[in-house]
Amino acid sequence: MNTAPNQALALAQRAARQMVRLGAVLSIAGLVAGLAGTVHAPMAPVATAHAASEAAQKIADHFSGIKTMSGEFVQFGPRGEKTGGKFFIQRPGKIRFNYEAPSAYRVVADGKSVVISNAKLKTADLYPLSKTPLKLLLDERIDLTGSRVQKVTEDPDLTTIVLADKSVFGNSRITMMFDPKSSELRQWTITDAQGKDTTVMIFNVQSGMKLDPKFFEIDYRDVSDKNQAMGQR
């Protein structure tokens, strides 16, 4: 009996399930949009880099100088879906999002990778942090003099900074909005390669606290086991 057609069908079905699962993950946890391997759909040309003022750089430096931060967030996905929870940041490169029920998702970056896990489905999707615009938010310093700066807008009540790195994550970009008086970050929006936005608004923010290093640990063996189990379904 020739099993080749059956094996090919099984592989195709498995790939289809993985694509559906990835789509569901990105719709809920779209803050890591711009992942490695994403097909870059054509977008309208982006304006050339804008030189930032000293005031804008001062705001960026203030934010970069905050080594730890925690608070609550509300996230709006590209289809208008709304989720929320608590977040923790430790610079450089570490972040954790605990989504509140009924969402079973959790997002953790350990400085090297980002994992999106679903406790209910027992799945875990791993991506290089360096291939997501989220890295720009978590860098040691946000430098507004380089080619990553696409636009800086300074209004009396809001300073908006748009950063991207086309050579690393294509047409994806991150837009950060700050209070110009307090220099505090209010929200950020990540636009993926298809032009879809995911916005995260933060509030009840505290900074300078000591965070448990375990908050940002990724169990790579557990991720591997879950992916292997998922691949066999």
Quick tags:
11 strands, 34% strand, 11-stranded antiparallel beta sheet, 233 residues
Report Rg.
19 Å
Low-confidence stretches: 15-29, 34-49
Shape: globular
Oligomer: single chain
Q: Which range best describes the helical content: under 10%, 10-25%, 25-40%, 40-55%, 55-70% or over 70%?
A: 10-25%
Separation of the first and last Cα atoms: 23 Å
Describe this structure as you would to a colleague.
The protein has 233 residues and is an alpha+beta fold. The protein is built from 5 helices and 11 strands. It has an 11-stranded antiparallel β-sheet.
Topology of this protein?
Layout: H1 4-28, H2 54-64, E1 68-76, E2 82-90, E3 94-99, E4 105-110, E5 113-118, E6 123-128, H3 134-138, E7 149-155, E8 158-164, H4 166-169, E9 173-178, E10 185-191, E11 197-207, H5 220-231
Antiparallel strand pairs: 1-2, 1-11, 2-3, 3-4, 4-5, 5-6, 7-8, 8-9, 9-10, 10-11
Short structural description:
The protein is an alpha+beta fold.
